[in-house]
Amino acid sequence: MRKRHAVRTRHVLAMATASLLALGVVGCESGSNTGDGGSGGGKIALLLPESQTTRYEQHDRPLFEAKVKELCPDCEIIYSNAQQDQSRQQQQAEAALNNGAKVLVLDPVDGAAAGTIASLAKSKGVPVISYDRLIQNAPIDYYISFDNERVGQLQGEALVNRLKEQGKTSGDIVMINGSPTDNNAKQFNKGAHSALDGSGFKTVPTPDYFTPEWKPENAQKFMEGQIAQLGKDGFAGVYAANDGTAGGAIAAMRAAGINPVPPTTGQDAELAAIQRIVSGDQYMTVYKAFKPEAEQAAQLAVDLVKGNKPTTDKTVDNGSGAIPSFLLEPVVVNKDNIKDTVVKDDLYTVQQICTSAYTAACQAAGLS
What is the pTM for the complete model shown? Predict the structure, then answer.
């Protein structure tokens, strides 16, 4: 099992590296820094949606910034985080454009509302890279993300398989989706339903619940209501769209005295989630290798500053046409392959995972 996951992870990263090479590494040539592309540098705006999900500040931003500086020392990065506020992101984008940004790398708070930003950039001749989340119904130049329907499918399949391993073939699955303003959340939901529907298990409630702003406290409150309605033993498992919502759901179940916690999914491979997996509170997470995603976005941004337009054989329809896209493959992480995935890829060290509270669980999982 471990060997298979290790091979798959190396294959995923190899494919990502190949995509980077296909883009063509463009360094900064000697010459004056005019700030308008050419042989010098240029201003690149990185606009991230929130810090509620730890990946953005801990991984995406530093990885992106480091790669840009490696490829183009003269390039200047204009960074902003919207803290889940679409109006703030709109203002940040306008400020970046007024400040001379030549490329926008935009991870939208609201994929639909962000179309206004893309249209404004288009009117100024500034290319837009839709990063991780898809900007909808608007003219964008590139999209870089993971196969988000595949993420949901992997979550759903892992949950069903785990329940069947426990001898269960039917029952309710509490479904906690992501933010209603995030197009990725809708894709995760679609992929999850492809695995859950027809599995013998039933998702509740109807209609599906989407967690405002991806906040764990909102997921926790919702889960408390589901426990009150269904009873402590009234559901077989929990589909949580990411690790934050999983953490909220698990907190609600623990507070209600549910032990053991039913199998619960997640996504993003957050450190706290990996520790919950080690301890048995969370069954799995989906690992999306942030490094190739962030570095590929940086490579593409530098190429665009230099006036180059890389090609790709993949496209995604955002409602405004077929958008050239770079889609990476997600990987399931559970207790059996932590060492062969997030540890092997240097996302976390064993020491970071195995703090004193997890010493015994780590030893049992072979992480000591």
Answer: 0.82
